[in-house]
Protein: Diguanylate cyclase (GGDEF)-like protein
Organism: Sphaerotilus montanus
Amino acid sequence: LLLAAPGATHATAGRLAVHYQPQVRLIDGRLVGAEALLRWQHPRHGWIEPGEFIPIVEETGLIVPLGEWVLRQACAEATGWPSSVRLAVNLSAAQLGRLGLEAMVTTVLADSGLPAPRLELEITETALMHDPDRALACVQSLRALGVGIALDDFGTGYSSLAQLATLPVDTLKIDRSFVAALGREGGGQAEAIVRLIVQLARTMGMHTLAEGVETDRQRAVLRACGCEMVQGFFCSAAVEPQALRVLLAQRGQGV
Ligand code: G
Ligand code: G
Ligand code: MN
Ligand code: NA
């Protein structure tokens, strides 16, 4: 993996690339954003999903330079998108705890020319709870730059409602485990939870985005629940930058 890292030239390690998964607004089907997702193209094993290597990268601390590289790539790419399309980038817990994150984000935005409000940084509930005070200060400083904050995998962590109320979060990303159960036998409980999350988000002035939407049935239930945006295989898997540009040209006016 080290040999696949940016700047390395070892021929057999393959290369890292950033792919983009569309985020679609339910009321009009418009493509309103895209999440940057790291991919490792291995010469023999093909595309390797980050779930398989991000944990290792986090253990070694390599996630800090790699995370910066992803942000740079993605911000540069997003400057070519219509201004109505936002870019979402994942931050790991290790990045969140580091001094200098705010300066790094400021520099990358300035270098790319991407306006801060077009960037949304995704933080998992778990990463926030690791050191809540520090995370809160960090999130506040990022928001002061004008960057949006999304709470990733929401509903799977243990953040209390009191903590949520103090967090300056723009978007709740409803975890795919709830979405997977929607429209299925016994999916009523998941639907009730989704409704509660949407209500909670509204009360706190946050947007809602459901992840892992795979079927039209799920999309319809989510819409009925008042969820604003969806992301998942039903709309599109993460695609290469060029393919996203094609989607934006074709479907930017409605999917
Ligand atoms: O694409 P896949 O489902 O395999 O992604 C698995 C996990 O890897 C997801 O939780 C996703 O948030 C994370 N991930 C993907 N790209 C990045 C990245 O650039 N930085 C960080 N920190 N996590 C990422
Ligand atoms: O945790 P995070 O949301 O950052 O992870 C995003 C990952 O989820 C991506 O790596 C992508 O491969 C995966 N993913 C995207 N859409 C779907 C989907 O509809 N179903 C499932 N099971 N996984 C998805
Ligand atoms: Mn994410
Ligand atoms: Na997620």
Strands lie at 15-25, 31-42, 46-48, 86-90, 119-124, 148-154, 171-174, 207-210, 229-230. The chain is about 45% helix and 20% strand. The CA atoms of residues 173 and 209 lie 5 Å apart.
